[in-house]
Design brief:
CATH superfamily of the largest domain: Glutamine synthetase/guanido kinase, catalytic domain
Order of helices and strands: EHEHHEEEHEEEHHEEHHHHHHH
Distance between the termini: 36 Å
Radius of gyration: 21 Å
Helix content: 40-55%
Largest sheet: 8 strands, antiparallel
CATH class of the largest domain: Alpha Beta
Number of domains: 2
Strand content: 5-15%
Number of strands: 10
CATH topology of the largest domain: Creatine Kinase, Chain A, domain 2
Strand order of the largest sheet: 2-3-4-5-1-8-10-9
Number of helices: 13
Shape: globular
Length: 374
């Protein structure tokens, strides 16, 4: 399968649907596993990595997953394809640009990925839109059980699943939620959120995971403790306590903007609308930043009934588009689509080949202008 078959639209987990989707972009659960009788990858030769790759690839492709799957040989894939898979959150940056034989099995609807020979022999992940951690946990446990019927995992009765990094030892689970927190950022409360997460031994990362900044006001929040804690307890804590509390903080910040700082809110949305509708060159970082403010305006209108001048002007684009006979309505899905399709690798893959930075900036600006024009 060619990646261009999925590159021209958003995937299911970024669709803007699901519980609390105005703040919770997506839910993800990842499991780290290693094969019994094999060294960790850091001690393996390329021949041993090839053996592990073949064994896991054959097992994964034999499973009944309820969706068409395809395999990509990551070490042989072009750089552009690897960058695309990272942008799509289907593989990690470490997996994309590591060394040695490695591959990925991906479901066509992109809710499931298996990374082979990443840091561990196997990394399984399930991604869903909105707050759906329980559903993610149920699905990934089912897949994990199917795999374990066909191979033996490295497991210790006392320490649990054995992993290359001690932070994954035990359950091997990493629960992660991507949040959109523009109001906390605008009201100067984001540092409080970051400090609270640190106190709770939670990891906070940017849009593309470890080592990345929170572009577009997106933050990934995940657990760090995996040893001595049951998987269901980690999921439950996130789903019933941690995330709902953060969502309420963001809602409160949005209400504060409406009640106390409406000029600040309107200025952000108005500037974003004007720039995105008229710019002829726009960088990826700037696009994420400005689209974040449009997403906030749409969310506040749809959830809170906000009717500020800037928000009304934003929604006037819908009316203009309808009158012009366009079918694309300005919505969260529209903005999410622009977030994704204007990322560098997406632009180039859909264009048909490499573009330099200025060409990407020009094409990105045109795509956004076309989407927002009346």
């Amino acid at each position: 399968m060619k990646l261009t078959e999925i590159s021209n639209d958003i995937n299911e987990w970024f669709s803007g649907s699901g519980p609390l989707a105005d703040v919770v972009i997506s839910s993800r659960i990842r499991l780290a596993r290693n094969l019994a009788g094999h060294k960790f990858l850091g001690r393996c030769t390329n021949a041993e990595k090839t053996e592990i790759l073949k064994k896991l690839k054959d097992v994964l492709l034999s499973l009944e997953l309820g969706d068409e799957v395809f395999y990509i040989s990551i070490d042989k894939a072009p750089d552009l394809d690897r960058h695309f898979l990272v942008e799509r959150h289907l593989i990690s940056r470490h997996h994309a640009f590591g060394k040695g034989p490695r591959g990925a099995v991906i479901a066509r609807r992109e809710s499931f990925t298996a990374m082979i020979n990443e840091e561990d022999h196997l990394r399984l992940q399930i991604l869903k839109s909105g707050m759906c951690l329980s559903e993610c946990a149920e699905q990934i446990n089912h897949i994990d059980d199917m795999i374990e019927k066909k191979i033996d995992y490295a497991f210790h009765p006392r320490y649990g699943y054995l992993t290359a990094c001690p932070t994954n030892l035990g359950t091997g689970i990493r629960v992660s939620v991507m949040l959109h927190l523009p109001a906390l950022k605008m009201t100067g409360q984001i540092e409080k959120f970051l400090n609270t997460a640190k106190d709770m031994t939670l990891a906070v990362r940017g849009l593309f995971g470890e080592g990345t900044e929170a572009a577009g006001d997106f933050y990934q929040l995940s657990n760090q403790a995996t040893l001595g804690v049951a998987e269901k307890d980690i999921v439950s804590q996130f789903e019933k306590a941690i995330i709902p509390e953060i969502v309420e903080y963001e809602y409160a910040a949005r209400k504060h903007l409406l009640d106390k700082e409406i000029d600040v809110l309107d200025d952000k949305i108005s500037r974003a609308t004007a720039l995105l509708k008229n710019a002829h060159l726009i960088s990826s970082q700037e696009a994420l930043f400005l689209l974040s403010h449009l997403r906030l305006g749409i969310n506040m209108r749809e959830r809170m009934g906000a009717t500020t001048p800037a928000i009304e002007n934003l929604f006037a684009l819908n009316k203009q588009s309808t009158e012009a006979g366009k079918t694309q309505r300005l919505s969260i899905a529209t903005i999410n689509r622009l977030f994704m399709l204007t990322l560098p690798a997406h632009l180039q893959l859909n264009h048909g080949g490499p573009l330099d930075a200025s060409q990407r900036d020009a094409l990105r600006a045109k795509i956004i202008r076309d989407a927002l024009s009346g």
